[in-house]
Each structure stands twice: as structure tokens, then as C-alpha cells.
Design goal:
- By secondary structure, the chain is mainly β.
- Helix content is 11%, strand content 44%.
- The chain folds into five domains: 59 residues, no CATH class; 112 residues, Nucleic acid-binding proteins (OB fold (Dihydrolipoamide Acetyltransferase, E2P)), CATH 2.40.50; 98 residues, OB fold (Dihydrolipoamide Acetyltransferase, E2P) (Beta Barrel); 69 residues, Beta Barrel (OB fold (Dihydrolipoamide Acetyltransferase, E2P)); 98 residues, Beta Barrel (OB fold (Dihydrolipoamide Acetyltransferase, E2P)), CATH 2.40.50.
- It is built from six helices and 30 strands.
- The chain is elongated and about 85 Å long.
Length: 464
């Protein structure tokens, strides 16, 4: 009889009323819950025994693989590679005493695992120098069950981590890197690569515990041309270069795939490592297509260069006060993230003579019939339906304003919609007016039809 069957017998002896078929069914359920590739049958059996308050004693290998881990294992040693590493954080125990915790994700030939480094181990000498792909040995660690039931490696006072330069069959980071087009819902601990598609923006928010938080948002395009939304929680603009081109290559280490409002999304956290091709900031010459001003007096400018690349320029320092719509300008930005440009007190802007090589707004307008999903547009059309506003309830219970109007040109008809502050812009429009609208984003709507959405850089100009 195999060691695995012997362990099942030990469980059945200690848990009356349980059958061998019950155990094997629970093993399948446990593996399905945690995810394929993360548990062996024997590892799942140890977790099931732990659920019943039963401890199974079985011989452990001196060197284990991640797939063999189970909650309750002690003094385990294994060889892995580093996937990513979070900063050390300080927390307080119930008695008020402080402690440090750092998390790390590691991987071997076919599995990944989370590692928690406690107290002084969170600041081991050289730990900050570990890089993705580094080969390490984890020595005398213990394993506990995480919130989702998966085994988590813990590095306490009797444990250690050592780097090693031995030959290993564990694949390198480059080998396990996947293109964003290969994403599937539920995958985690991934290394994903893609091309910047559009702007990169930061976000500040208050979480459910009332604490402030930050996030970085972007879109990555895969080899098949499809784009995915990316949200990196706990990250801010200090994590990325000041200059990122519109076609920069990006690699994200330690992310997961989940379903969002608009399909699959890539989500990361403060341990996610961001690798982006950066460069030197250079002056940018563009033509201003439209200028709008926010309630905080920030100028939001839509501009275009000679290659018909559009830019979203955010000016918080009034550097563009000398400029008007249609002007050609040269600016030295503080930051350039894809097609997003930031101007502040450290930037400069000057007007140039008209350059006919840079298209005007009239040359950039797109016919409705030519609109495609995931692109940005400027259109001119007539309003066929009185704008309507309604309140939409989000999953979190927040009520958001949405205004929409139905427009057409001589090639087709389409819905134009605006959320939150952009809803107010639509509210000012009236039936039968001819309008020029800049900075629209095309997205797939209900029944597969394309809809146009206003952005913070949009402007609606009524034609006389």
C-alpha cells in the first residue's frame, strides 16, 4: 500500500463516519478551490485533516517542491526562484507591540507560493537586493493555511533564506513570461508582458477601512492587438519612469487575472514589480485641438502631433495660458506616460509658427461609420435625441451620474455618453444642435454595438 493510501487510512481511523470515497471527493474539491497546479493529492489530504482538527504524521522530504506543501508542515526546506518582493511593513499586535512583515512570491517548475517573512526576518541582510528570477533556498520554514486555503510558507526566527548559484531546472523569468493575450480568468502569480495602449494614470481613494490608498491604471495591448485594463493597487507614479513612450514594452511580475465590468483585467498589488522601457524626456511639438478647465482650474488639453498621435495634456501650472485652440506649441513636460503629458511649474511651453504638417481638428474628425472599439476620436454630428441623465448604482453601492445622447452624421448613428463630471457637458446640449466633440473613447456596448464615451479631455463645441 502506498504512503498516500496509508495516510487516508489514518484519517479514516480518527474520523468515524467518513468513507474513502468521501475523502477522495473532498480532495478533488480542495484542489478545485485552490486551483489546478497548486496541490498534490497528498497536500490536499493534509489540509482536509487539518479542517477536521486531525494531524497526520508523514515523512517529509529533506527538499520539498511547492506542490508538496501542506498546512502544518514544519522545518521544510526547498529551492525556488523569486517572482516578486514587497516592502517591509510595520503592524501592531493586540497588545500594541510592533512587528514587521514582508511578503514574497516564489515559484518552482510548476507551482507558486506566497512567503511571509516575520519580524527580523523581514529585514534580513541582502533581502532588498533580491531580484526576480534569483535562485534561493528556503531553510527550516513552516507552512500555514492562507485565507483562501492555499499553503503559505512562513519564515520565522528559526528559518532562513540563502541565495544559491547552482544549476537548476526551475525556469527563468523570461521563460514564464506570458503575453497579455494569453490571459485566462482565475490565473494568479503571473508574469505578463504587453505594449502601453493609451495613458497611464494614478488614482487616490479611501478603502473600506477608511484608510487612504493609491493605484496605477493603464492598458496593455497583446500580440493579437487586443487590450486589457490593468490596475496595480498600492502603486503610484514613483514606481515608474517619468518618460514612457506610447509604444513602450511593459512587464508586470506578480499579477492575477480577474473579471471586471469590461471583461478580463490584470490586477497587481504593492509587491508587483513593474518593468517599463523608459527614456529621456524631450520637447514635444503638438497642435492644440481643444482646451477645457476643471473645477480646480486645471487645464485639460487635447493635442496632436505630426504623426497624428493624440496627447492628453494636464496643465496644473497655467503654463498654457498664452495658448488657444489651434495653436502649435512646443512643451518640455515633467512627465510623459504614453499619450498622457503632465505640465507643472517645472515645465515650459512656447508657441510656434503654424506647421501645416500637424493636422488640424477638421482633418482629424472621423465619420461615425469608421469608429472602431478601443480607439479615440473626434466627431461632428447632429443631436437626434434629447440628452437624458440617470443615476447608475455600482457594485459598491455608489450612485454615479450618466448622461447620454443619440447623434448622427451622414454615415451613421451612435450613442455618446458621459459619466460623472462629463455628464454635465452632455446636459448642456439640445435636440437638433450640430456639435463638434473631441476626445471620445470608443467602447463595446450592449448587443455588441459601439458607443462613444467622453473623457476628462473631451469638449463639446456647438456649431452655429
Amino acid at each position: 500500500m502506498s504512503e498516500f493510501e496509508n495516510l487516508i487510512d489514518k484519517l479514516l481511523e480518527q474520523k468515524s463516519g467518513l468513507t474513502r470515497e468521501d475523502v477522495k471527493e473532498q480532495i478533488n474539491q480542495k484542489k478545485e478551490k485552490i486551483g489546478a497546479g497548486y496541490l498534490t493529492d497528498q497536500g490536499a489530504l493534509f489540509l482536509i485533516a487539518s479542517d477536521y482538527g486531525i494531524t497526520l504524521s508523514g515523512p517529509l522530504k529533506v527538499e520539498m517542491s511547492i506542490k508538496d506543501l501542506y498546512a502544518g508542515a514544519k522545518e521544510i526546506s526547498l529551492e525556488t526562484r523569486v517572482l516578486n518582493l514587497s516592502p517591509a511593513k510595520q503592524f501592531s499586535r493586540k497588545d500594541g507591540s510592533p512587528f514587521y512583515l514582508r511578503t514574497m512570491t516564489v515559484y518552482d517548475t510548476n507551482s507558486t507560493a506566497s512567503v511571509k517573512l516575520w519580524d527580523e526576518k523581514a529585514n534580513l541582510p541582502g533581502i532588498e537586493n533580491l531580484k526576480p528570477g534569483d535562485l534561493i533556498k528556503i531553510i527550516k520554514a513552516y507552512v500555514k493555511s492562507d485565507l483562501d486555503g492555499s499553503p503559505t510558507i512562513n519564515i520565522g526566527s528559526g528559518s532562513n533564506i540563502e541565495t544559491t548559484d547552482t544549476n537548476s531546472e526551475i525556469p527563468t523569468i523570461d521563460t514564464i513570461t506570458k503575453d497579455v493575450s494569453e490571459s485566462q480568468e482565475g490565473q494568479k502569480d503571473l508574469v505578463m508582458s504587453g505594449i502601453i495602449d493609451g495613458a497611464i494614470s494614478g488614482m487616490e481613494f479611501t478603502n473600506s477601512r477608511g484608510k487612504p490608498g493609491t493605484a496605477l491604471r493603464m492598458r496593455l495591448k497583446g500580440k493579437d492587438g487586443s487590450a486589457m485594463r490593468v490596475v496595480l493597487w498600492g502603486k503610484d507614479e514613483s514606481s515608474i519612469p517619468n518618460m514612457i513612450s506610447q509604444s513602450a514594452k511593459v512587464r508586470l511580475l506578480g499579477v492575477r487575472i480577474k473579471s471586471g465590468n469590461q471583461g478580463l483585467e490584470i490586477h497587481g498589488n504593492d509587491a508587483t514589480i513593474i518593468e517599463i522601457e523608459g527614456g529621456e524626456i524631450k520637447p514635444i511639438i503638438t497642435r492644440i485641438l481643444s482646451i477645457s478647465t476643471t473645477e480646480t482650474r486645471r487645464k485639460m488639453i487635447l493635442a496632436v502631433d505630426s504623426k497624428k498621435n493624440t496627447y492628453n495634456i494636464s496643465d496644473s501650472s497655467n503654463s498654457t495660458s498664452i495658448c488657444e485652440e489651434g495653436d502649435v506649441i512646443e512643451c518640455m513636460p515633467t512627465k510623459v506616460y504614453g499619450n498622457s503629458i503632465t505640465l507643472d511649474e517645472n515645465s515650459f511651453v512656447r508657441k510656434l509658427d503654424n506647421d501645416k504638417n500637424i493636422p488640424s481638428l477638421s482633418q482629424l474628425r472621423t465619420k461615425i461609420n469608421d469608429v472602431k472599439v478601443d480607439e479615440s476620436y473626434c466627431i461632428e454630428s447632429i443631436i437626434l435625441k434629447v440628452p437624458e441623465r440617470r443615476e447608475v448604482q455600482t457594485k459598491t453601492g455608489e450612485s454615479i451620474s450618466l448622461s447620454e445622447m443619440f447623434v448622427e452624421d451622414d454615415t451613421g448613428q451612435i450613442w455618446v455618453k458621459g459619466w460623472r463630471n462629463q455628464a454635465r457637458i452632455i446636459d448642456k446640449c439640445e435636440l437638433g444642435e450640430i456639435v463638434s466633440i473631441t476626445g471620445l473613447n470608443a467602447k463595446a456596448g450592449l448587443e455588441g454595438r459601439i458607443e462613444l464615451f467622453l473623457s476628462p479631455f473631451s469638449k463639446i463645441i456647438k456649431k452655429s
